[in-house]
What does this fold into?
Amino acid sequence: MRIEFTKMQGIGNDYIVIDCLGGEPPDPSLLAVQISRRRFSVGADGVILVCRSEAADVKMRIFNADGSEAGMCGNGIRCVGKFVYDRGIKRSRYLSVETLAGIKHLELTVGNDGCVTSVKVDMGRADFSPAGVPVISDEPVINRPLTVLGQTYNITCLSVGNPHAAVFVPGDLDLLDIVRVGPAFERHIIFPERTNAEFVRVISRNVIHMRVWERGSGETLACGTGACAVVAAAARLGLCDFNTPVTVKLPGGKLVVVCDRDYQMTMEGPAATVYEGIYEYSLPGA
It folds into this structure.
């Protein structure tokens, strides 16, 4: 099966975006595993299907590199906004996108060449409730100690459409052995659906440095929902201010996040098209 795709990225978080307005490919989970393998295939952090929606302009389905389906992706949804506008699916600077985490609203910035350069996303409200994350606890997990691989970390757990554990650390994040500790956080017994783990250093009240271990993808250069999660967690802990733009510095670039006092989040950052191509999709037994 030949599948047309567009490789896109948002500050280094790269996705293979497929136009599925005419129908989805068979077994998208298997497709994500096959096409995401770096060096052996196209290579990406995951696959995004742009589908028809009865409730919004389009629907986004996102599959991680391991084939698991995610509820939401901040960098991915910015790529969807650019994809929809640049391809003429809908030529509007304001778009609505249906996701498993609800309908999200996008505001697009268009450059002189007529293509989208950046996207602002209404990310919804951060949820600290244990059931909303989910995390096994009788009360919200706010700056609570957790022992991982024999070391104790203070974590704050919340959902921004998918589960996050924000870990504030005092030292140099470049020295963190995230390949060792990341999987242990992701699959810790207190997270029944696994979690994304963000390791955070607060530089100032409006600048945060972050590295992320993403559920189902490993370490990535950026995570939009993770950036929102750490700003919401930092605001709750009094480390940054509400209703104030906070720059989150990630290995792939910067995002600007605003959290209001009700923990409603907006996120803004770039999106880019890398290239287009055709993938030969092999189904088992074919």
Remarks:
- The two ends are 10 Å apart (CA to CA).
